Amino acid sequence: MDGRLARIQAFVVRGPGLLSTCGISARVERRAGARVLQRAPLPGPRTRGRVGLWCSSPWRQCGVTNGLEAFVRTLPTPMRGNPVKARLAAGGSAYGAMVFELLSAGLPQICSNAGAEFVLYDMEHTGLSFETLKTQVALCRGLDLAPMVRVPRGEYHFIARALDVGALGVMVPMVATAAEAEHVVACTRYPPAGQRGAAFGFAHDDYRGGDVAAKIAAIHQRTLVIAQIETVEGLDNVEAIAATPGVDALWLGHFDLTNFMGIPGAFRHPDYLAAVQRIVAACQAHGKAPAFLAADDDWAREYKAHGFRLLAYGLDQALLGQALRHGLDVLRQ
Fold first, then answer.
1. Number of Cβ atoms within 10 Å of the Cβ of 4
2. How far is 195 from 213, CA to CA, in rounded Å?
3. Within 13 Å, how many C-alpha atoms sit on residue 236's CB side?
4. Are 192 and 151 in contact (CB under 8 A)?
5. Least confident interval from 74-78, 88-92, 138-142
6. At 41, phi and psi to the nearest 5?
7. CA 131 – CA 160 distance, rounded (Å)
8. What are the φ and ψ backbone dihedral angles of 162, each rounded to 5 degrees?
9. What are the percentages of helix, strand and coil residues in the chain, rounded to 5?
10. Which among 62, 65, 130, 147 could disulfide-bond with 140, CB atoms 3.0 to 4.6 Å apart, if both were Cys?
11. Whole-angstrom Cα distance, residue 304 to residue 66?
């Protein structure tokens, strides 16, 4: 927050009693290792005008230049960012989890503890409801974890609703043409850039007020759009899809792609391997991130070496099953 406007909450006290509570805005700087709140207006009895506050951590006692005492904390900013999107746009990589079955209340914290930078929830194959998704996204609040979702298909009501419940990114299956990619992007953007309907003060903006134009700009900046390439038509049009403004990543749907190519599960077939390279090349040519779900260590190493930069590891139910099977084998030895 240093150098930017921050929302501050201050409790101003004189002597033993609480005299006033106020919301103030201040520009935050660093001074001798402490946060300095410069020229912070404190309206209220005996505190008219402008005073300076300094504070080193939330709810620590702070000094006030006119001799009063204050306790100050920084309130959450109205809009969360998406560090995963920012990292990919800068040419970096991001690693996380794709979740299908194990939707417990502790899942986001467990993924965060494991070092995941994002969690991608699947709605295409699992029957996951928007109500459950909304709860999972809420559980990601306060964690350094970006919640994203694969919607069932590219219809507006899937994409917009996923974003409205708070997802910071959407993945759309079976994107086959540039026109379809443009439609997906339009569903994630408010007019005039797109067609997303407006609802503010809801889950996606953490139920906060604030300037609507600023919120729209922040939402457009943070929303990660992933197009899945998993059909022959999508592969034929992969360069045009990668060139579509607003598409951030192309996710290789390896099983479906081999099915549509007539070589089901043939992940060593020359035609499939050529398709992998074509997707990576299209992404590199247009500054987009190639993306993939690596089922195990070998796939993770191989596809990272191919140049994939957005990678999820394992299937949640498979990871649990493998760990449990290993433990049971140890017990039975």
1. 8
2. 15
3. 7
4. no
5. 74-78
6. -70, 130
7. 14
8. -60, -40
9. 35, 30, 35
10. 147
11. 59
Rounded-to-integer distance, Cα 74 and Cα 10, Å? 9
Largest Cα–Cα distance of the chain, in whole Å? 80
Distance in angstroms (rounded) separating the CA atoms of residues 25 and 7? 5
C-alpha angle 292-298-302 in degrees, rounded to nearest 5: 55
Instruction: Kindly report, residue by residue over 219-267, the tens digit of the pLDDT.
Output: 999 999 999 999 999 999 999 999 999 999 999 999 999 999 999 999 9
What pLDDT band is residue 33 in, cutting at 50, 70 and 90? very low
Rounded CA-CA distance 227/247 in Å is 7
The closest alpha carbon to 170, from 189, 195, 192, belongs to 189
Q: Which residues are catalytic?
A: 125
pLDDT of residue 79: 80
How far apart CA 306 and CA 145 sit, in angstroms, is: 25
* Measured distance between the N- and C-terminal CA atoms of the chain, rounded to whole angstroms: 55
Is it the case that residue 272 has pLDDT exceeding 90? yes
Mean pLDDT of 50-63: 38
Dihedral pair phi/psi, residue 154, rounded to 5°: -90, 25
Q: Is the pTM of this model over 0.85?
A: no
Q: What is the pLDDT of residue 77?
A: 54
| Interatomic CA distance for residues 315 and 319, integer angstroms | 6
Which amino acid is residue 24, in one-letter code?
A: I
Task: Enter the tokens of residue 94.
Answer: 């991001």
Which residue in 245, 235, 333, 331 sits closest to 287, CA to CA? Answer: 245
Angle value at C-alpha 229, between 223 and 232, nearest 5 degrees:
155
Could you give the C-alpha distances from 276 to 77, 246, 251, in angstroms and in order?
A: 41, 22, 10
